[in-house]
Amino acid sequence: MKLASLKGGRDGRLVVVDADLRHCAPAGGIAATLQDALDDWARAAPRLRDLAAALEAHQAKDAQPFDEAACAAPLPRAYQWVDGSAYVNHVELVRKARGAEMPASFWTDPLVYQGGSDDFLGPRDDAPFPAEEVGIDLEGEVAVIVGDVPMGSSAEEVRARGDIRLVMLANDWSLRNLIPGELAKGFGFYQSKPATAFSPVAVTPEELGEAWDGGRLHRPLLTFINEAPFGAPDAGVDMTFDFPALVSHCARTRNLRAGTIVGSGTVSNYDRSKGSACLAERRMLEQIEAGAPRTPFLKFGDRVRIEMRDGQGRSLFGAIDQRVVRPWR
Fold first, then answer.
1. What pTM value is reported for the model?
2. Dihedral (CA of 62, 63, 68, 74) sign
């Protein structure tokens, strides 16, 4: 089952989307918004699946062409957005580039930060930034949306209960030149992490078939800058902490409520021939290999596309396809 939120109101209008991302059907008779569906998942999910089956059989009432550009983020705003750094080889590379040792605990205790969740970008929205000098960078990620997760839940419990309701892609934009000053204060990210963008559709795990192993999504994450291929690291490879482990970590001392989004962090492989999912990683490799980075950060007018395809080349989530622009006001 694939779900999307068409733009309209602060929380969008929920639609069910067919497997080929060609048609959709309004789900307002079941749940007006995706958050409504998540809040009442036991009742809503079976009815949404029935609507999805009718849509695939060309029997859905009020079916219409699906337009990715008409989509908000699946959750245009969320109660919580927590981003991890599950690909520890990426963290190791960051620290190596600046000559810093990596604590051994990073391999056993996940890193997470709490991002802004009140103003997500839609998949085709322009991405506004205050100035090019802030070091504009993409970060291609996989993210999951959970149901209610009780405090203290283990990874095994998260997996067994099916707490992961939906899977999607994210571009967790970063302003690299603001990060060092913020982290030096010892209080974490804020100004350096602007609005995150998400894929047009969010997909139930079972819809992903063998690509989803219950905790990792085993498909290349394709990134393009100005239509040129930039990277295709496999999201299921070199992921030190899978999603149940990340969710469990986030729920150690608090409940997670339905609609909480948990991100994987930048997808990264040890096999550098796969490319990268952020500019900072490529710049780090250039620093290590040549003594200085050569690849610039993004400029106004640059375009970033992030997508994932199945074995037949069909888009799984639709594409995040955005232009870097000056502020809207």
1. 0.96
2. positive
